[in-house]
């Protein structure tokens, strides 16, 4: 064996050893990041997932404008094989106050359908101030044959709503999308109603 090839082998072994040490250190550092992240977040009070103690008092929303009330009128339009309506026609809210209303839909067909709801607001000036936190309109809905469903809308009215607006109409049009949805085949010997 030549002196050059033995020197190259030693150099290769030395490089391999260094690479193994670096890989082990990187794995250890990656493994230690999770507890370090939790500790840093807890110390700084950000992104805390668990609360200490048994009872945590809900924060008071100082953004609620108690000096005025807005009447929100609810409306539902069905464009398809179902009944669609709000469970209540009106609700009074203070600007900034979180409110929940419910819409009910009943699929009157003997087949599953896919649907989507599109909201509209009146007057037009209210549109940028109507803030939905949760809404069935955010995603398409699949309704099984003869299924009835209660669907919530959680919202608040931005306190920056112009003072002259005292009534807002929230209207949804619920329509079928994607054509007919195939229903699952019934097992042999069952009666389909």
TrEMBL record:
Subcellular location(s) per record: Cell inner membrane
Main location: membrane
Gene3D superfamilies: Ctag/Cox11 (2.60.370.10)
Membrane topology note: Single-pass type II membrane protein
Domain of life: Bacteria
Keyword set, alphabetical order: Copper, Membrane, Signal-anchor, Transmembrane, Transmembrane helix
A Pfam family reported for this protein in Swiss-Prot or TrEMBL: CtaG_Cox11
Transmembrane region(s): 16-37
Primary role: Exerts its effect at some terminal stage of cytochrome c oxidase synthesis, probably by being involved in the insertion of the copper B into subunit I.
Family: Belongs to the COX11/CtaG family.
Record protein name field: Cytochrome c oxidase assembly protein CtaG
Species per Swiss-Prot/TrEMBL record: Massilia phyllostachyos
């Amino acid at each position: 064996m030549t002196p050059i090839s033995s020197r190259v082998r030693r150099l290769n072994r030395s490089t391999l050893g260094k690479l193994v040490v670096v890989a082990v250190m990187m794995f250890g550092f990656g493994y230690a990041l999770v507890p370090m992240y939790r500790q840093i977040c807890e110390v700084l009070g950000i992104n805390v997932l668990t609360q200490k103690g048994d009872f945590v008092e809900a924060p008071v929303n100082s953004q609620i404008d108690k000096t005025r009330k807005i009447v929100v009128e609810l409306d539902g339009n069905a464009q398809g094989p179902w009944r669609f309506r709000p469970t209540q026609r009106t609700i009074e809210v203070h600007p900034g106050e979180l409110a929940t209303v419910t819409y009910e839909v009943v699929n009157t067909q003997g087949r599953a359908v896919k649907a989507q709801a599109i909201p509209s607001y009146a007057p037009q000036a209210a549109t940028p101030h109507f803030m939905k936190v949760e809404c069935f309109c955010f995603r398409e809905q699949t309704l099984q044959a003869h299924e009835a469903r209660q669907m919530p809308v959680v919202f608040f009215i931005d306190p920056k709503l112009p003072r002259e607006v005292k009534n807002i109409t929230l209207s949804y049009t619920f329509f079928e999308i994607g054509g007919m949805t195939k229903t699952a085949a019934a097992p042999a010997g069952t009666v389909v109603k």
